[in-house]
Amino acid sequence: MSDFKPVRIAVLSVSDTRTLETDKSGNVLAERIEGAGHVVAARAMVRDDRAAIVDHLRRWSADPQIDVILSTGGTGLTGRDVTVEAHREVYEKEIEAFASVFAMVSMRTVGTSAIQSRATGGVANGTYIFALPGSSGACKDAWDEILRHQLDSTNGPCNLVEIMPRLTER
């Protein structure tokens, strides 16, 4: 078993109505990230604007001090929900199974309302990028049931951290 390796994680909250001070979901993620022994490498709030989201994802994924980006908000079905489209514009590879596993986890807490989430994950510039719903409950579910384990270098049989050095292979 390998030693625990802290990961540097940036949190991007997407909202037209919240501020960093009122951002419950971003706070939940930051608390859980630090509680698991990782580092909150950056934190920001952007409006539901595709270009602004893409800009943050591109800048942060190019930053060698950031290993993972978690965004929260804008994954729903309304006209203003553009986070998923922004993520897919940045991804080099999509992690399709993340959406499926998140839906299974969500079914236990919100039942069939899980179909309203378009949570997604991918990789760009050797950085993992995940789009989570804007509710604090969904962020807790995603972290507690999926990301906490996959971002733990001691988790077996395998985890995302162990393949991190190989993400930029050509």
Task: Note down, in words, how this protein is organized.
The structure is a single chain. The chain has about 170 residues and is an alpha/beta fold. Helix content is about 40%, strand content about 20%. It has helices at about 25-35, 50-60, 85-90, 95-110, 135-150, 160-165, and strands at about 10-15, 40-45, 70, 95, 120-125, 125-130. The chain has a six-stranded mixed beta sheet with strand order 2-1-3-6-5-4, sandwiched between helices. Helix 1 (about 25-35) packs parallel to helix 5 (about 135-150) and helix 4 crosses helix 5.
Give descriptors for this structure.
39% helix, 6 helices, Molybdenum Cofactor Biosythetic Enzyme, Chain A, 6 strands, 170 residues, six-stranded mixed sheet, alpha/beta, globular
Give me a quick take on this structure.
Helices cover 39% and strands 19% of the residues.
Counting structural domains, the number is 1
Unreliable stretches: none
- How much is the radius of gyration in Å? 15 Å
CATH superfamily: MoaB/Mog-like domain
Report the total helices: 6
Estimated structural class: alpha/beta
Q: What characterizes the major β-sheet?
A: 6 strands, mixed
The side-by-side strand order for the widest beta sheet comes to 2-1-3-6-5-4
Q: Could you tell me the strand content as a percent range?
A: 15-25%
The overall pLDDT, averaged over residues, is 95
Number of strand elements: 6
How far apart the termini lie comes to 28 Å
Order of helices and strands: EHEHEHEHEEHH
CATH architecture: 3-Layer(aba) Sandwich
From the structure provided, what is the oligomeric state, counting identical versus distinct chains?
A: single chain
Q: What's the CATH C level?
A: Alpha Beta
